[in-house]
Each structure stands twice: as C-alpha cells, then as structure tokens.
Inverse folding.
C-alpha cells in the first residue's frame, strides 16, 4: 500500500524543516532513534533470533544456546526491562519463531520446539521437529531459520562446511520443514547465510556473504527448484528427497566468468536480487526484516538488512523485472551496539536488532547487544524507490524536491561494475564503466525524476551518487548514494 500517514507527517515536517536546516542538519538519530537495552553482566546475549510473543514479551535466542525472555521490550529507556532464562543447552540458535504455544528454535543440529507447560516461565517440554541434516562439528556449519510461511513451513538455510565444500548432508541448501516435520529440499547453491526472512508478499530471501562463488555479499531470492550460485553441495541432488523435489542437478558453472553469462547457460541459476558492494555497504550481510506495518516511516513494504561487520541496518527496494527480483540498496542506520545479526519488525513498527562481535569483529564496540529502532515521526529526505527503465532509472523521493538541482545532470554521478564469478574467494570490482546521464526530467508531482542514461550495463551494479540533489526546502539527501543491481533490463 502507499504510505498515507507518512504523507501527513511529511507536510508537518516541511513546515519545521527550515528551522532545523538553519540550526544544524538532521541526522539518523533524529529520524530513527536507538534504544539500547541494558544486558545483565551474567548474560551473554549474542542474539541470533528475536520473536515477539502473544503476552508482549520478547523471546531472544543466543549463539550460546540459550533463549531469554525480555519483559518490557517497548520500555522507553530499555533500562527497566528484565531478562529471564526460558531455555538452555541448545547449539547456536540462529532462528526463532512462535506458533500455537510453542517456540521453534533453529540451531546447528535441528529444529527444536519448546513449551512452558507448568507456567513457571521456563521450557519443560522439548521436542525435535526435524534433524534431517548432518553436523560434522565444523565451526562454519551454521543453520539459520525463518518464521512460518503461509503454509506453516519453516525455511532453513544451511552453511557449507568451511567455505568450499559440503561434508554433512544438505550443507549448502535451503530446506523447508513442514508442520508435520517432513523435509522438502528447496534450493541449492548456498554458501554462508547471515539471515533469512520474508518480503511483504511472503516470498523468502536470505543473505549470503562474500567468498567462493560470491564476489560480494548479496540478498538472494529462495525460489524452489533454483540454484543460487555455489555448487559445493551438488552431491545432495542424489538424495531421494532432492530427486523428488528438484530433479537432476544443474550444470556446473564455469569459474572465472560472469554470473549473468552463466545464468544464460544454466536455467536453474537465480542471480542475486541485490548486491551489497564490499566494503562500501559492509562486509557481512545478516538479518532481514520487512516493514509491513506502515508505522516505521515512509518505507512500507521495503526490506531492511543488517550488516554484522559494520553494525548497521541497510534498506533495500526490490522490483520484478523479467520475472526476477532485482533492486537497489541504500544506507539506512548506523550505530548498532555490536555486530547486527537477528532482526524483527514488531507489529507496532519497532525494529529490534540483536548484535554480536564474536568470531568476527564489528564496528559496534560492545561484545553483544540488543537495540530497538523507532520512527520519530519526522520524514527524512531520501530516495524512496529506484526503478529500472529500458533507457535509465526512475527515482522517487520521500519529500518534494528542488526542481533546479534534481533536474540538473551535474547533480549526479554514475558508475558501474560487476564481479568475477569464481571458485576462489570473493572478487574485486571489475569491468567498470561510466555511463552518461543525458537528461534528468522532474515529474509534475515534484517528487520523482526520470534519468535518461546512455550505457546501462546488464549484469552490473549501478552506483549512483546524488551529491547535488536538494529538497524543496534546500535539504541534502540524508544518504546520497544508491547501488542498483541491474541483472535484467525491462522490456
């Protein structure tokens, strides 16, 4: 849906923005303040999963194998909220979901469900839902679990053994776990997930991280029957369940080429929906949340993605072109206390972000954290949407624009690049080009611009800087850069 109440706030904000501009520029803190919860010294939170329960408490699963309950998750300061232990003894819980009185925890060896039967606040009934994948003990064999889809399934993405191979069953795969515990092999080609979540339409995405066959971190669409890039787990196509669900394995990709070239040879290969250029947008993409509430500002139905290394939250706008998702990422919020990991958008429009720095350093200085982001009611001047056109891009903004600066091609700078699709680790930016922005036509609504571009490059990230763009009130964009992954040109 279109953001209606945001428009009202926008009018209110325009009336006062000149006063702020005359004093000092507004920052991320003014639009999306962070509330940091005080974690007791005897708790190592390292929150891999966050879920809101029907009684208003927040369930938090940890990398240490615990589940805690937080009694006042919407506390104004975060200082008076109290933690209590619900369960312990699990193994690196990187997904948690509630359904019909049970908490479902996805951890390294299995999906487990837990219930407090006697009402004392601790789990006393614990059952295995599915342990269909193996575990070798390798440090890298993480398992990330989703919340429930519309059919009652959980989606689980399994890290490879190390970065290169699959030494345990279904490592490098996405599995669906049905309500009765049946396992459906769904998508192959996964390397090192950092999070999994749904868009507003209920379709499933996960984040994968830079490494072999992954030139940069990316957001990828989990389409049943597809292959998302890393062939390390191809041997599990011989499993009967995989044969039944997916059929024969795809053709092996050729190392050293370009992903979109290989996608034309391998019908099953689904390209990343959005790259997060490394290190410009971070080094370790993580949790995913979607604003379906209409209460988190002007970005309804868009995705928010964490970055563990930079302790940030990014924003992603996606569209479908030629049947595939692709789109742009934008900086959104820095200042998370530790490395962003588990994320949740609550029904009232608060975003919870759990953090950890163990194993990989983070810009956030705390060893672990739990933060809540809330919208202040002020509408930032931002790029709202960035859509591909056959001859350029159309950008909409959250505020009315200054036609003189937005209509001036000198306000923009555009470059493109792609990555080597290869078995070795990561990739530099390659095949750089500098397309020409021939015109910038501001729409009659005063909130969008059509950029006509000579030199669009399919298969490239298009990095756009908008340093000269101003709002009607003379404000610069809060974030002046966008990165659009142009896999396909619109027909």
């Amino acid at each position: 849906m279109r953001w209606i109440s945001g428009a009202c706030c926008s009018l209110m904000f325009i009336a006062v923005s000149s006063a702020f501009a005359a004093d000092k520029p507004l920052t991320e803190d003014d639009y999306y303040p962070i509330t940091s919860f005080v974690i007791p010294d005897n708790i190592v939170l390292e929150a891999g999963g966050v879920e809101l329960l029907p009684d208003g408490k927040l369930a938090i699963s940890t990398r240490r194998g615990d589940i805690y309950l937080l009694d006042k998750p919407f506390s104004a300061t975060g200082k008076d909220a109290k933690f209590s232990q619900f369960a312990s003894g699990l193994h690196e819980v990187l997904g948690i979901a509630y359904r019909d009185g049970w908490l479902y925890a996805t951890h390294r060896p299995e999906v487990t469900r837990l219930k407090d039967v006697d009402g004392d606040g601790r789990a006393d009934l614990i059952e295995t839902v599915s342990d269909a994948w193996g575990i070798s003990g390798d440090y890298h064999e993480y398992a990330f679990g989703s919340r429930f889809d519309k059919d009652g399934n959980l989606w689980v993405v399994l890290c490879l053994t190390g970065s290169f191979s699959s030494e345990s069953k279904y490592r490098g795969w996405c599995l669906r776990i049905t309500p009765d515990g049946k396992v459906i092999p769904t998508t192959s080609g996964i390397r090192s997930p950092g999070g999994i979540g749904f868009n507003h339409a209920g379709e499933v995405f996960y984040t994968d991280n830079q490494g072999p066959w992954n030139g940069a971190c990316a957001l990828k669409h989990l389409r049943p029957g597809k292959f998302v890039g890393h062939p390390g787990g191809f041997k599990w196509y011989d499993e009967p369940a995989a044969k039944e669900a997916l059929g024969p394995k795809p053709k092996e990709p050729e190392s050293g080429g370009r992903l979109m070239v290989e996608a034309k040879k391998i019908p099953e290969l689904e390209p990343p929906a959005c790259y997060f250029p490394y290190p410009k947008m971070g080094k370790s993409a993580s949790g995913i949340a979607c604003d379906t509430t209409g209460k988190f500002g002007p970005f309804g139905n868009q995705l928010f993605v964490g970055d563990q290394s930079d302790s940030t939250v990014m924003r992603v706008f996606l569209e479908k072109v030629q049947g595939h998702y692709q789109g742009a990422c934008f900086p959104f919020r820095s200042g998370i206390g530790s490395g962003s990991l588990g994320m949740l958008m609550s029904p009232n429009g608060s975003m919870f972000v759990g953090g950890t720095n163990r194993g990989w350093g983070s810009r956030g200085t705390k060893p672990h954290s739990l933060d809540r982001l809330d919208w202040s009611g002020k509408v930032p001047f931002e790029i709202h949407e960035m859509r591909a056109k056959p001859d350029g891009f159309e950008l909409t903004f959250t505020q009315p624009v200054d036609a003189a600066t937005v209509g001036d091609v000198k306000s923009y700078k555009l470059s493109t690049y792609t990555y080597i699709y290869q078995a070795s680790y990561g990739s530099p930016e390659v095949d750089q080009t500098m397309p020409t922005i021939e015109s910038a036509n501001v729409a009659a609504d005063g909130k969008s611009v059509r950029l006509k571009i000579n030199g669009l490059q399919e298969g490239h990230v298009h990095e756009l800087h908008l340093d000269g763009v101003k709002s009607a009130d003379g404000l610069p964009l809060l974030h002046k850069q966008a990165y659009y992954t142009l896999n396909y040109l619109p027909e």
